[in-house]
């Protein structure tokens, strides 16, 4: 399989990238980001692209892929709804629409988050925007589309969070996340599980389109 990954400079995206590079069923990985990720691998190609509101200008480099793992995300902290919508919904849908034109049989996996509001009517701004993004992706017409909603995430394989807050939590409160995993094992996933789940759901499908942490654990095997 040939896959595209966004958000490879972030915690989830990098974790997914490492699993894809190691997996025998993945023959090529295209990382789309604004800056180099400083990883060299025979399977890896990089597309440095600054304007995520359009992808028509690089369409020739997006053809022939079997899946897209959209892991790019930003914190809503300090952002107005219009700004967060652009960075979350507009950028994701811009890529998705271009990819659908070029690769009609593609699987599109999107990393959302636990607590996303599918009704798009709740009080939480970020949850509404994520909900609209999920809904629009599911209705776009991909052969397969899956919305990943991980809860607490444990980074593995040397991957570090890009968020300062999450980096602090992982560094000083990792014991708490491990405790939560012991108490509620179905609520916590790690970056390796997310990567493997994305690969396996692309290959084999799944009976749900919105995936909670336990679904991700099942798909990771």
From TrEMBL:
TM region positions: none
Top-rank taxon: Bacteria
Domain NAD-dependent epimerase/dehydratase: start-end pairs: 3-99
Main location per the UniProt record: membrane
A Pfam family recorded for this sequence: Epimerase
Compartmental location: Membrane
InterPro entries per the UniProt record, alphabetical: Epimerase_deHydtase, NAD(P)-bd_dom_sf
Protein name, UniProt field: Epimerase
Natural source organism: Splendidivirga corallicola
């Amino acid at each position: 399989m040939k896959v595209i990954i966004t958000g490879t400079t972030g915690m989830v995206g990098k974790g997914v990238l490492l699993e894809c590079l190691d997996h025998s069923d993945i023959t090529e990985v295209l990382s789309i980001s604004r800056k180099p990720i400083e990883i060299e691998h025979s399977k890896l190609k990089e597309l440095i692209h600054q304007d995520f509101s359009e992808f028509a200008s690089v369409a020739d480099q997006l053809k022939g892929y079997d899946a897209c793992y959209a892991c790019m995300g930003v914190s809503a902290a300090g952002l107005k709804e219009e700004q967060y919508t652009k960075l979350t919904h507009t950028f994701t849908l811009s890529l998705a629409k271009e990819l659908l034109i070029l690769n009609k049989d593609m699987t599109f996996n999107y990393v959302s988050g636990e607590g996303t509001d599918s009704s798009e009517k709740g009080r939480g701004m970020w949850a509404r925007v994520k909900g609209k993004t999920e809904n629009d992706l599911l209705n776009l017409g991909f052969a397969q589309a899956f919305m990943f909603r991980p809860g607490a995430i444990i980074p593995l394989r040397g991957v570090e969070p890009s968020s300062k807050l999450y980096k602090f939590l992982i560094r000083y409160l990792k014991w708490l996340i491990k405790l939560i995993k012991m108490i509620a094992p179905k609520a916590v996933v790690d970056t390796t599980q997310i990567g493997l789940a994305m690969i396996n759901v692309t290959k084999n499908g799944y009976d749900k389109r919105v995936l909670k942490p336990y679904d991700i654990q099942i798909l990771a095997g």
